[in-house]
Design goal:
By secondary structure, the chain is mainly β. About 5% of the residues lie in helices and about 50% in strands. The chain has a single domain, classed as Nucleic acid-binding proteins (OB fold (Dihydrolipoamide Acetyltransferase, E2P)), CATH 2.40.50. It has one helix and six strands; from the N terminus they run E-E-E-E-H-E-E. A hairpin with a 5-residue loop joins strand 3 and strand 4.
């Protein structure tokens, strides 16, 4: 399933590198719902995200706690057994692309960005292309 959304980093992204040299960036985005719960409070969901390679490197370099980002990716269901023997299920958005959102404030390192084609390749798709098949 394709996912497109805007959220705010709850903390700085975490970067790791596999033994094969692939960079992995993990982060959680806060997304506040438009409605309030029974007590009148806004409801915030935390969306776990993972990016790989150049996308991971760029996100880890230019985003931090409080930054806003628009992501595009696919849902992935993961499961593992924790040290207590319980099976843990987790849904993650595997990020394929992103865009900077908002102004230079709010914890964003956006002012340092070099917007060259090397970091943000231009798509070969025509602007009239639909993001889905008919």
């Amino acid at each position: 399933m394709k996912v497109i959304g805007i959220g705010t980093f709850g903390k700085d992204p975490v970067v790791n590198t596999t033994t094969g040299g692939t960079v992995i960036c993990s982060f959680s985005l806060a997304v506040t719902r438009k409605f309030k719960d029974k007590s009148g409070e806004k409801v915030t969901d935390w969306i776990n995200c993972t990016a790989f390679g150049k996308t991971a490197e760029t996100i880890s370099k230019y985003f931090s706690k409080g930054s806003k980002i628009m992501i595009e990716g696919e849902l992935q269901n993961n499961n593992y057994t924790n040290k207590d023997g319980q099976k843990i299920y987790q849904t993650v958005v595997v990020v394929s692309s992103f865009e900077f959102v908002g102004d230079k404030g709010g914890g964003s390192r956006q002012s340092e960005v070099n917007l060259s084609d090397e970091n943000f390749p231009i798509s070969d798709e025509p602007e009239t292309a639909l993001p889905f098949d008919l």
